[in-house]
Design a protein that fits this description.
mainly alpha; 5 helices; Ferritin; elongated; 81% helix
């Protein structure tokens, strides 16, 4: 049971971190503020570090991880592009990032509660990812 919960949690984290990196990549070219761009780049860098750590642990379990659901990724892309086309400004980017972070925090918290038998290393990776999302969400507030 421990190994099954561990792999399931790691897969969900893998999907989530990929979704977060993709979201930042999608909006960063629309950012006007140097400070906002720096915050996004820093968060993306931390997400990539977490992604590397996740990949290493998944490899130990001989698991390939999980990509984000195509429907979720498509809906995110559609929402992002529609909102930015309607109002290309830093507050729009900030609002989109906060919404995405909140969804990520909610999902990862649910998986942490669902896969209680996962090993501590995997739980720590999930918590690092949640912390990164919380920090980004908080930092986005000044741009609303």
């Amino acid at each position: 049971m421990i190994e099954q919960d561990t792999i399931k949690l790691l897969r969900e984290c893998d999907s989530g971190v990929k979704m977060g990196i993709s979201a930042i990549d999608e909006v960063i070219d629309h950012v006007k503020s140097d400070r906002l761009r720096t915050i996004l780049k820093d968060s993306r860098s931390e997400s990539r570090r977490i992604e590397t750590d996740l990949r290493n642990v998944l490899n130990e379990y001989h698991d390939s991880g999980k990509d984000p659901a195509p429907v979720a990724k498509g809906m995110s892309w559609l929402k992002t592009n529609m909102k930015i086309q309607m109002n290309e400004c830093d507050s729009t980017v900030s609002e989109l990032m906060i919404d995405g972070c909140n969804m990520g925090i909610k999902s990862l918290s649910r998986y942490l509660n669902q896969y209680v038998s996962a090993d501590e290393r995997s739980k720590d990776l999930a918590k690092r990812l949640v912390n990164n999302e919380e920090r980004l969400s908080y930092d986005m507030r000044e741009f609303l």
